Amino acid sequence: MIRTTAAVLAVVLSLAAVDAGAGSAAPAEAAKIESRTLANGLKVVVWPDHDIPNVAMYLWFRVGSRNEYPGITGISHFFEHMMFNGTRTRAPGEFDRIMEGNGGRNNAYTSSDVTVYQDWFPRSALELVFDLESDRLANLAFDPKVIESERGVVYSERRLRVEDSNDGFLGEQVQATAFVAHPYQIPTIGWPADIQSWKIEDLQKFFKTNYAPNNCTLILVGDVSAEEGFALAKKYLEPIPRQEPPPPVRTVEPEQLGEKRVYVERNALTPLLYLAYKSPAANDPQGPAINLLVSILTEGDSSRLHRLLVEEKKLAIEVGGSFQEGFDPGLTWLTLTLPEGADVAAVEKVLDGALSQVVSQGVTEAELTRAKNLYASSFWKQLATINGKASLLGSFDVFEGDYKKMFDSPATYEKVTREDVQKAAALVFQKNHRTVGVLTAPAEEPAAPAAAPAKEAKP
């Protein structure tokens, strides 16, 4: 699906051709995109791109573990599996067989905030894919045997990704500890007891509410005209009735007033040190500065923390970081994998010193330029494919409220100053707003002293 070099350059030039006199005027490429909301509330966004005869379709449902509660945790992720397991008109697995038989492929993912279904296929299968998607939205089967089979699959996935993974286990414990009220504390894959206890009635109610067309945005990018996309959406998807909107998530996480700590002992050769700091929501104006800050600290071998902790002081094997952007305030993560036998407290002290230095002194112009270049490179690389375009369009429309903000993103990041990054560091890196997770191997019990040999009794 990757365009030729000349085509990529054409996209870059057209997207960069902003009307300087208008300042924030949309570039020419944005004019190709059209959006329409159907009578049942389904929003459809179409970006024609005729360079290759392929199409990418993304269906963004505004439902994730954020919309769950104790007793049904993990149910959003479960539907990611169920949506491929048959309808009243098609057998389990037939969705995949038909898609692949017509040259297409598909995938899906679930997060705390959304569940996204992805289809990639040749233009010749366009109407067929609309038919497939409308069928599973309107006619999803709830066969008890299939449900029990998938329940076992999901539980096995949880065992693999969490219970048998030190990284997954510690991350889940830190996430659950960081939040005391907000449902961001719920692991996307769900808690074990809930996975084992969902009822068919729970599934049917959850599906009807959250998989309604008025809770979905459909993104269509590729060899299709806007009118053609709207006509097919109207034919296949508009007949699906809208539902009452899902109940809003009203819980606001109370301010954290002190550092929290989680200590885990597991069979581990390499200790782990995770720090999760309370941070703003995805649409916060400081989001770009936070993303650049995390990039400066952790992205690549030239990042500040990699150079300090991995190369110079040899205190860590690997350093990572991420800004967890969601509908509500979330977390900024720093994750360290340490060498066997590491003094975790000593590593944390050096890390705290490095973060304090960023808060007090900021970052260098060279570091900021590098982070901006990395962001720009990633952004333009995504826009070079219909898949990347579909992903970005949906992300901006769902999380930022308007896909048009995508075209402002490069300029927004370019305007971030060193002062903005320093303010972001001061906002995020507050010890009383963080949760620290430490995973180490159990301490070895001291060996019991050997018993003195018994003296032989004299006759």
What does this structure look like?
This protein is α+β, with helices and mostly antiparallel strands. The chain is built from 16 helices and 11 strands. Strands 1-2-6-3-5-4 form a 6-stranded mixed sheet, sandwiched between helices. Strands 7-11-8-10-9 form a 5-stranded mixed sheet, with helices on both faces. A hairpin with a 5-residue loop joins β1 and β2. The N terminus is likely disordered.
Topology readout:
Layout: H1 5-16, E1 34-37, E2 43-48, E3 54-61, H2 75-82, H3 94-101, E4 105-110, E5 115-122, H4 126-139, H5 144-163, H6 166-178, H7 192-195, H8 200-210, E6 216-222, H9 226-236, E7 260-265, E8 272-279, H10 287-298, H11 304-312, E9 318-323, E10 330-337, H12 344-361, H13 365-382, H14 386-400, H15 409-414, H16 418-428, E11 434-440
Parallel strand pairs: 2-6, 7-11
Antiparallel strand pairs: 1-2, 3-5, 3-6, 4-5, 8-10, 8-11, 9-10
